[in-house]
Known about the structure:
mainly alpha
Amino acid sequence: AWLRLGESYVLPPTAAAAASLVARASVGYHVYAHAHARTADRCVAALVLYGAPGPLGAVCRGCACVGGDGEGAAYERLVLEEGVERGVLRLARVGGGVDGDAGEEGEGGRRTPMRVLGGMIVRERVRAHLGDLFVAGVCHREHRDVEREEREREWRRTVEAARELGGGVGALGRRFERVWRVPGGEVGLCQEDGERDGDGVEALVDAVVLYRRVFAPGGVGTDVSALTGLSWRGRDGDGDVGRLRRALGSRVFEESAVLEDARDRVVDMVVELERRRAGVR
């Protein structure tokens, strides 16, 4: 009951600061004093007490998220690794209407601060992973075995956390896993599903999938004879090349120099493709 009360203090529209210090301290005391309190539970208590004056706030900030020794769900471990201060900043974004659907109730799970934070972290991680895939595919970047193993270990952690959260985050995790593990497999486009491009992750999914469709061996961009086929559909934007051009217009590609350079390279390839198509008319 105390943990649920603490969660209500943390999740918007209720804020921990709106509760009295006595109420917040009571939540912290009862959660910390519980013999079977998990590290994730202590993290919620620390979120409630964050900003409290004096030693109370300092103690909770210092000891809430120290390790966990592999305890808890995969998404909880991702939250614990980030710490309380980062969690407070993320929850403030939810209060401002940003990433409000992250951590939505999934299969068998209620909306909690840990699930909300886990959903936000998973989306960020998927976005970073897709950026790596896009750059590696466009620039033909090879990773050493050790780097590849470390990268794929983190990708597996992200997929596992997304699977636990379910809902929209779980669907995004499944889509990323298919893009990663089955490069030549068919993956539905976010544009076709009508998904919004708030943080750019949907644009990255589409960019990776469409780049492979168009410029992989046998794609429309590698065979002049295919340029008059139905997969192009001209400049009206309803074919793969038009969809690729639309995905590349997302601001997510401006977040790093490496990603922007890869985007510019693909744009040049699309322009060259258009010139070649004009030549076969």
